[in-house]
């Protein structure tokens, strides 16, 4: 079994049907929503996971950090979020992935 298959199997056992997309118990106050947003984007919080967070956590468990801290968007919001989150761009630009992906970058 390949290390990728092993990582995916481990993630299925840990997260499938157990980890929600949004944090649980979010109250409707402004502070409650703000807290949920912080928890949602925190890549180190496994109470809930978004798509690129799941990919990052899957391989991080096996000792491979795919977070390159490189993002395609240069908006202030994206840059701020990328400090605590792992965005799809950061995985795409990971040096651990095949270099031929870089041939398709539109800049």
The major pleated sheet works out as: none
Helix percentage: 40-55%
| Mean pLDDT across all amino acids | 79
Rough outline: flat
Radius of gyration: 15 Å
Low-confidence spans: pLDDT under 50, at least 5 residues? none
Based on helices, strands and strand pairing, what is the structural class?
Answer: mainly alpha
- Provide the succession of SSEs: HHHHH
Structure summary, number of beta strands: 0
> What share of the residues does DSSP label as strand, in percent?
under 5%
Total of helices: 5
Distance from N terminus to C terminus (CA atoms, Å) equals 37 Å
Describe the fold and architecture.
- By secondary structure, the chain is mainly alpha-helical.
- 44% of the residues lie in helices and 0% in strands.
- The chain has five helices and no strands.
- The chain has helices at residues 3-15, 30-41, 51-60, 76-82, 88-92.
- Helix 1 packs across helix 3 (51-60).
- The model has no long low-confidence stretch (mean pLDDT 79).
Q: Could you provide a short overview of the structure?
A:
The protein contains five helices and no strands. It is an all-alpha fold.
